Automatic annotation (TrEMBL):
<protein>
    <recommendedName>
        <fullName>HPr domain-containing protein</fullName>
    </recommendedName>
</protein>
<feature type="domain" description="HPr">
    <location>
        <begin position="10"/>
        <end position="70"/>
    </location>
</feature>
<dbReference type="InterPro" id="IPR000032">
    <property type="entry name" value="HPr-like"/>
</dbReference>
<dbReference type="Pfam" id="PF00381">
    <property type="entry name" value="PTS-HPr"/>
</dbReference>
<dbReference type="InterPro" id="IPR035895">
    <property type="entry name" value="HPr-like_sf"/>
</dbReference>
Length: 81
């Protein structure tokens, strides 16, 4: 579980650097990636994720988030506008 904890914290911290809305879709749930609690309950149960990023710094946010998910071996599909 500890590696998952590290992933959750890093994902939330990375998302917090951006003003864009960053939402993780897992199954039929939508979680604000800046919410550590939401991430904890979701990253455990799902295998594939979609990341929806909207806002003024969306492009930078997409690249940073994709890199963090990949670093932790999480399968993520970044969805555009």
């Amino acid at each position: 579980m500890s590696s998952n904890n590290a992933a959750v914290v890093e994902i939330a911290q990375t998302a917090g650097k951006f003003s864009s809305s960053i939402v993780l879709q897992a199954d039929n749930k939508y979680i604000d990636v800046k919410s550590i609690l939401g991430l904890f309950t979701t990253l455990v149960s799902s295998k594939g994720y979609e990341l929806h990023v909207h806002g003024p710094d969306a492009e930078e946010a997409k690249e940073a988030m994709a890199a963090v998910f990949a670093k932790h071996g999480l399968n993520i599909n970044v969805v555009g506008e």
